[in-house]
Design a protein that fits this description.
about 190 residues, alpha+beta, eight-stranded antiparallel β-sheet, 5 helices
């Protein structure tokens, strides 16, 4: 049975901290729905109605493009062990890029990883829990280190040049391209 909440409590916080992966969904009018899995230790609960996650460069920047236009975001956690549970956070998101004021102040809550490009901040309107009984049981073998290795080996100027060429989402929405050399943060 689904239950709705207006704020993140200690039980919700503990559940989210235990999950090795979360999923982020955004949409903008007339565009494809974006759904991205996220791993690594990059998600933080900042308060009863505020969360954030550190974003690393990857295949695109659809979340930023959608949030700039629409702002709606859903983050989902699901248990792959017992007890079965799904938790969704519904809210409005924004981003703080590596070049933006406030980025360094926000970084105190996150690990410094090669390839970091922005922090997404979500003002949570509501939460929903549901059973998750159809989610399979799985165990985590280990985190992948491929993305961090990729960013660590990049030539900063070449990487920024490639990123500057991709200043639009797959549906043509503008993407803010940061100019800082964020490649080799450790």
């Amino acid at each position: 049975m689904a239950a709705f909440f207006t704020a993140i409590d200690d039980t919700h916080r503990a559940f989210m901290a235990k999950q090795p992966v979360f999923f982020v969904a955004t949409a903008a009018p007339g565009c494809r729905i974006n759904l991205s899995p996220k791993g690594m230790d990059v998600f933080r609960v900042l308060g009863p109605n505020r969360v954030a996650y550190l974003d690393l460069g990857g295949s695109g920047n659809e979340t930023q493009a959608h949030l700039s236009v629409d702002g709606r975001i859903t983050i989902m956690f699901c248990a792959f062990d017992n007890p079965a549970l799904i938790l969704r956070l519904y809210g409005r998101g924004s981003f703080i890029g590596v070049d933006d004021p406030g980025f360094e102040a926000m970084m105190v809550d996150f690990p410094r990883l090669p390839g970091m490009r922005q922090i997404f901040v979500v003002e949570v309107d509501s939460l929903q829990t549901s059973c998750g009984w159809a989610v399979p049981r799985m165990t985590l073998e280990r985190e992948r280190d491929t993305l961090v290795k990729f960013h660590r080996q990049q030539d900063p100027e070449e990487r920024l040049a490639r990123i500057a060429e991709r200043n639009k989402s797959i549906d043509g929405l503008p993407v803010v391209v940061q100019q800082s050399l964020y490649i080799g943060a450790d």
